[in-house]
Amino acid sequence: MVKKILLSFVLSLFVVVTCWSQNEIIVNADQGTYQISRDIYGQFAEHLGHGIYGGIWVGENSPIPNTRGIRNDVVAALKKIKVPVIRWPGGCFADTYHWKDGIGPRGQRPKIVNVNWGNVTEDNAFGTHEFLDLCSQLGCDPYIVGNVGSGTIQEMSDWVNYVNFNGSSPMTELRKKNGRDQPWKVRFWGVGNESWGCGGSMSAEYYANVFKRYATFLRNYPGAPLYRIACGPNSGDYHWTEVMMKNAGHMMQGLSLHYYSVIDWNHKGSATHFSEGQYADIMEKTLALKPMIARHMAIMDQYDPSRRVGLIIDEWGGWYAVEPGTNPAFLYQQNTMRDALLASTALNIFNNDCARVRMANIAQMVNVLQAMILTKGSQMIVTPTYDVYQMYTVHHDALMLPTHVTSDQYTYGKYSMPAINASSSRDSTGMMHISISNLDPDHGMTVPVEIRGAGVKTVTGTVLHADSLQAHNTFSRPDAVKPAVFKAFGVRGSKITVKMPPASIVILAIK
Questions:
Q1: Is 173 noted as a catalytic residue in this protein?
Q2: Is 63 a residue whose pLDDT tops 50?
Q3: Of the listed 46, 122, 130, 315, which one is catalytic?
Q4: Angle at 380 between CA 377 and CA 383, to 5 degrees
């Protein structure tokens, strides 16, 4: 009798637990329409702190191994994550940068004061030629942001001519004099940065007219058509999107969007010493990207139903207080497992919205904000965010597979959000990949995955997980957080049961 009662209790408990769990992922493997552009995995390198000088550029005479002044270790690391595009020179710096100061013999270039980031003096050693050399070493596309705030139309027009024209002109002769015979043919050009703020404090109506003037004089040269990216809204400024699409949408190829996950702009909190409540706050703000993007896309669809204009999320990421003892203007912060989950969640959102999201550039690539890489003298380490980017290379230029996620809630205090998010794709070889994030730091999650419209022969996995949300790599412990082989799943027919650790990211490769 006692055994029967216990058995009945266990069965009833099983039923309750089974009914309570809402986790399910359905991948529609036969319904893909849109491609996940590799440019969604783009980077951002601004003249800010040690993002350029010391992080990328050390000079040809440095004892740190380099190729034409660019760090070899940083280039090798970035190649592993297949960086597709880099945005440069800013950021707020772009609207004070005059490109002709950064060409010609380095010893003859004028020094400038970086008024946006600490009033430090720069010697302009890293300019147009050096940036395009970096892109060449990486095999990636450059994305140049022109100076609209304090520059002129002629200045930006001359820059395009200098970089892209293959004929004879004063600018091309200057380029040849500076050692470059053939044009680089740069495609992506940003017409100003944050023109609503540090780029000029403009209204949407005023900037729309400014953009149209600039776009008129930024020429397409033979073999070098331009992808003109207009300054878009700050986060949820839907009026800006409405005005730009209505008044200038016909002259742009892309519209930017800036959004940072920040606890409080006045009290950003530590990058490494934070509570679970602060973690939940950051995750909630990151998930807010999804409805925000949807609303911007809906406005864009009204004026551009064919979705010719791309949504370019060219600044995003986590923003915290700087590391103790560092220059507040240099925005140097550490990078933890929290940031890996922030990155994976945002990238899953971008993947799923790839019908309109054509590029994203995380802020920033080296030594600034949510960086891929941190350097200290000759030392270099990669961050948990870097690991996410390396894991997600499988999505580059792959066919997005519509993915439906039903999830249990992760709840902490006043915060409540879906614990599970995911995106899926099929690459050119036919391999499917599913990226899954479990945001719950306290509970593992059993996640049934059903593949519809395709068979499942073999499954392999990779996981990023650590003992705590605060776990991060340091120069003394560079591998404290790193990906590992994942085997905690079972396969039965077209269904895969995945057992996610708490606060973890899993990539499944399905053949």
A1: no
A2: yes
A3: 315
A4: 135
This prediction has a pTM of 0.94
Token pair for residue 463?
């996981």
For residue 156, give the 3-state DSSP assignment.
helix
Position 12: which residue type?
S
Strand-pair category, 504-510 with 459-464: antiparallel
Q: What are phi and psi of 375, to 5 degrees?
A: -125, 155
Q: Which DSSP string corresponds to 7-22?
A: HHHHHHHHHHHHHH--
465-475 burial, b at 16+ Cβ within 10 Å, e below that, comes to: bbeebbbbbee
**Among residues 24, 60, 194, 284, which one is catalytic?**
194
Tokens 């003109």: give the residue: 228
Count the residues in the chain: 511
Q: pLDDT tens for residues 180-201?
A: 999 999 999 999 999 999 999 9
pLDDT digits (tens, 9 = 90+) for 262-296: 999 999 999 999 999 999 999 999 999 999 999 99
Instruction: Give, rounded to a whole angstrom, the gap between the first and last alpha carbons of the chain.
Output: 50
CB 403 within 8 A of CB 417: no
